[in-house]
Each structure stands twice: as structure tokens, then as C-alpha cells.
Amino acid sequence: MKSLTKFLLNKIPRPLLIKASIWARPLIVQFFRGNRFTDPIDGKSYRKFLPYGYGKQRENALSPGTLSLERHRQMWLYLQKETEFFTKKQKVLHIAPEQEFFRRFRRMKNLEYISADLYSPLVDVKADILDLPFDDESFDIVFCNHVLEHIDDDRKAMRELYRVMRKGGWGILQVPLKNTLEKSYEDSSIKDPKERQKHFGQYDHVRWYGMDYFQRLHETGFEVDINYYSRNFSAADRLKYGLLENEILPVVFKK
Fold it and tell me: Which residue(s) pair with 93 in the sheet?
């Protein structure tokens, strides 16, 4: 299973994998049904999660039902337990929405939910994150997860996210981040997809973020919470939900 997952991730374009998952998911859910792991997003339990990773694979990372990873489940638990996201009327901008979040958030009656992406045919607005087609201070909440590592001028993208967020608003801006790395590793001369995967962990990434990511956000104007949210759970619950103890949930605020 581990070698097959790695082959599929590296050889088959992600849009095709997503389409294939629509019909394959019910079969996968039944095959992995059990009670050791629980996905908090849909509440279903499994004997194991799937391995995941473009290079070195992580065991028990991908939920068979929602296809969520550790970072998605951590974010869901934060929204559920620490915010009024599921009850309060709010206007939300979601850049390049994750498949499972997109399906669920757009059905929530309390949200004015707008999804945006430059390439996806499913989103509400076709938009370049470097030049968002929204007025200043339009949104109460902004989600932008695992997008900035694809953007050469990430600081300009951050400024756009800050611009469209209302004062008093907040957001979650996740990126691939090594908390053992003080300074982000980037090299604009690396263009070859194989070299980018070697240096940055994925063929279409342009950097590995270090802890200076939060300084970049702060310089943009955001107040930043460097939140190791999964540490609020016991070791047993982290195992149960498939969370990473050292993964940071970057929560930002506009004062």
C-alpha cells in the first residue's frame, strides 16, 4: 500500500487523482473501517489511515473518508473547539479550497462563503492571489492553506490577503514549514520540477518556510499566533485523530 500510494502521488496528476477518489472512496472507506483512528471531520473511524508524502511517506496520515491530512484535521478541531465558525454569521474567503472543506463550508447557512483560485473550475471566483478582485476589508475570515509556497512574490500575496480582511478579522494561513529551520530556504534559480522536489519537497514549490515565515506575516501587518494546537490534546488523542505534535497552525489577526 505504501509503495502504491507513493507511485500514484508522484506519477499521476493531482486533478486525475481527485476525480478517481470520487468513485474509489466508498470502497476505500469500507476496506479500512475499524476503531483505532477517528477522523473528526466526518466522525468515522478506521483501523488505520493511509500513508502520504511525495518523498518520505508519513504513516497514518491520510483519512480514507475525507482525504484529510494531519493539518486539515488540526484546523477542523481548532475551528470546532476554539471559534464560532460553525454558528456565527460571517463572510469567508477561501483561497484554493481543500476538497472536503469546500464541500462542507459552502453548505453552511451561517457563512457567506466565497472560494477563489486561479485554475480550479469549481470555485466561485477565478482570481490571482497577487491581485485579488475584492474590495478592501471585505471578509471576516480568510483561509489560504499551502498556497504561498507556490508563489514567487509571497509577500505581495500576503499583502493582498491582509488588504481584503476586515479589521477585527482573522485567518489561517498554513504553509509547509520546518520549525527547525530559522530562515526560509528559497532559490529562484531552481526551475526544474525534479530539482524543486529535491530542494523544496514538491515539484511545484519554490521554498521551504522556516520560522521567519511569521516575521513575514508580521511585517505585512498581521498579528500572529504561532499555535501548536495539537499539543492541547493528549498523546492518545493525537494518535486517534492522526495529528502531528510539532505541526504549527498559523492563525493571523487584523487589528
Answer: 114, 142
Q: Is residue 6 in some structural domain?
A: yes
Q: Are both 108 and 210 inside the same structural domain?
A: yes
Q: Do 64 and 126 sit in the same domain of this protein? A: no
Alpha helices, DSSP H, located in 39-153? 70-82, 99-105
Number of C-beta neighbours around residue 124 at 10 A: 14
Looking at per-residue confidence, does 140 or 120 come out higher?
140
| DSSP designation for 203 | T
Given a contact cutoff of 8 angstroms between Cβ atoms, the answer to whether 6 and 57 are in contact is yes
Residue identified by cell 481548532 is 78
pTM over 0.70: yes
User: 63 lies in which domain range?
Assistant: 2-68
Q: Cα separations (Å) of 240 from 29, 34, 43, 112? A: 17, 12, 12, 32
Please answer whether residues 144 and 171 qualify as being in contact, where contact means their C-beta atoms are separated by less than 8 angstroms: yes
Residues 195-246 have pLDDT tens digits of 999 999 888 999 999 999 999 999 999 999 999 999 999 999 999 999 999 9
**What is the domain count for the chain?**
2
Distance CA 121, CA 246 (A): 34
